[in-house]
Amino acid sequence: MSSAFHIHIGGAGVRIGDMLWKLYEKEYNEATQNNYIYEEVDGNHYPLALFFDTDDGMIHEVQRNKSIKYKKHSFLHGKEEALTYARGKYTVGREVTEQAIDCIRKQIETMSRLDEFVITCSISGGTGSGCLSFLSQVLDQKFENKSKQNGFIIFPSSEMSNNVVGPYNAVFSLYTMIDDLQSVTMFDNQSMYNVIDYQLELDFVDYQHLNNLVAQVISSYTGLRRFNNCDNSKFLSNLCPYPRVKYLIPSYGKMTLINDYARTELQETQFIQYLTKKKCQLYQCPINPYLITSALLFRQKQLNPSFGQYDLTLNNLDHFFGQSSNIFQCAASNYQVLPEFAQMKLTGSYFSNDASIASRFKQLRESFCKIRQKRAFHQWYNGEGLEDCEFQEAHDYLQSLEGDYNSVRSFDNSQIENSNNYEL
Fold first, then answer.
1. Among 53, 122, 363, 418, which residue carries the largest CB count within 10 Å?
2. Number of folded domains in the chain?
3. Residue in 203, 200, 225, 224 with CA at minimum distance from that of residue 213
C-alpha cells in the first residue's frame, strides 16, 4: 500500500499542518484507507508527518495538542527565526533542514511504498522559502523522481503583507522550486479573506479561518485515496500539461455558519455556478480567467457518478485544449474543525490551471524590482551566502515563467493542432 508523507515548514506551514491533522482526526473513523497518511501500530495511529521550523514557538503550540499521537520524529526546530530566503537556505535553516531530512528518512523506512510528499508552507517568510528550496532539491535527488512533491503554498498578497522582504523571498523560492515540485497549489491571505467575506458574515477573521480553508482543500485531495481508494496522483498531474505550467488556483465552497438557521443546501446546478465564480478563488488574479485545464472535486458522502456531467456551466467553460473540466468525488462527510462552521452535505474545491496567473507573477516581479532597484536589504542576503548574480537570475526566471503563461493565452487552436512538439 502506498502512503503520503506530509511536510509542514515554517510558522505558516506548521499552523496549516496543525489544522489539517485535527481535520484528519475527525475523519479517521469514516476513512477506509487510513494507512495512506498514518502508520498504524498496535491499535494506535501515528501521523506520517514532519513539522519543522527554525524557531520553536509554533512547534511547541502544536505539541500541546495531546489528542493526536505524533511520533517523536515528527517535530524539529532550531533556536532562531530565519527572516530571509538566504538565512533559511544557507545558514540558520541549513542545519535544521539537514536534520529534517534524517527525520523524514526514519519515518519513510516504515512505509511499503512512498507515493508523494504533501508540503505546506508560506514563501513570504525566510523559513518557508529557504528551507523549502533546499529540502525539495535534496528530496528530488534522494528519491530520483520516484515520489512526487506537491506543494500547497501561501504566496505574498498583492495588497497586504507583514514582511517587507516577502517579494525577495518568494521570487528566490520560485526560482528554485521549478524543477522539484510536480504541482503548486497557490493561496494568498488577501484572497482568502475575500472568500470568507463573500461566503460568511463573520465579525472577526484570523489565521485559523484561513488555515481551515487550506486544510479543507488538502483533505479533499488526499480524501480521493483515503475514502475512495482512488489514485489521486492523476488528479494533479492531469492539471499540469507542461513541466513549467504547474501553478494551480483553488476555489472552495460553500461555507456556512452553524448559527445561520436560514441556511440551505445548494442544488447541483447552483453549487457548480457558485463554486466556479471568481469570488470563490483562494488566489485571485486582477484579469479574467483563461483556463488551460481545470477539475471539479466535490465532496459528498452519497455517491453520485453523474454529478456535473451534463451541467451547462461546466460544459460552457472555455479551455485551452477545448476540453471540459474533469470531475472527481471525495465520498466523505464534510467535517469541520472550527466550531462556528456548519457541516454541509455538499462542498467542493475547483482547481484551475489558469493563464491569467501571469498577471500575479507580473505584480510579484514588479514588487521585487522596486526593492532591488534601490538595493534595499541586499546586505541581508549577500551576508548570508547569496550572490549578486542570483538576484538577476531569479528575476529572469520569473519573467520567463510569466512569458510561458502569456504564450498560452496567445496560442490559438490551429497552432495546437500543428505543434505536437510544443514545450514550455
1. 53
2. 3
3. 200
Range of the domain at 142: 2-249
Beta bridge partners of 295: 326, 351
If we measure between CA atoms, which residue out of 51, 123, 49 comes closest to residue 89?
123
Model-wide pTM > 0.85: yes
Sequence-separated (6 or more) residues with CB below 8 Å from residue 209: 192, 196, 202, 338
pLDDT digits (tens, 9 = 90+) for 156-193: 998 777 788 999 999 999 987 878 899 999 999 999 99
Domain CATH for 347: 3.30.1330.20
Q: What is the CATH number of the domain that holds 379?
A: 1.10.287.600
Q: Let me know how many helices (H) and strands (E) the chain has, helices first.
A: 16, 12
The reply to whether omega before 254 is within 30° of 0 (cis) is yes
Domain's final residue, options 358, 376, 405: 358
Q: Which helix (H) or strand (E) holds 295?
A: strand 291-299
22 occurs within a structural domain = yes
DSSP string, 73-95: GGEEE-SS---SHHHHHHSHHHH
d(CA 47, CA 27): 13
Cβ atoms within 10 Å, residue 301: 15
What pLDDT score does 175 carry?
85
DSSP symbols for 111-135: -SEEEEEEEEEESSSHIIIIIHHHH
Q: What sign does the dihedral 397-398-401-403 (CA atoms) show?
A: negative
What is the residue-averaged pLDDT of the chain? 90
Domain match, 121 and 91 both: yes
Residues near 227 by beta carbon (within 8 Å), at least 6 away in sequence: 30, 31, 32, 33, 330, 331, 332
* Same domain, residue pair 203 and 71: yes
Angle value at C-alpha 253, between 350 and 25, nearest 5 degrees: 95
CA distance 54 to 83: 10
In this predicted structure, what is the pLDDT of residue 413? 46
Domain boundary residue among 249, 265, 295?
249
CB 36 within 8 A of CB 2: yes
Q: Which residues contact 410 (CB under 8 A, 6 or more apart)?
A: none
pLDDT in tens, 67-115: 999 998 899 999 898 989 999 999 999 999 999 999 999 999 888 889 9
For 222-241, how does the pLDDT look when each residue is reduced to its tens digit (9 = 90+)? 999 999 998 887 788 789 98
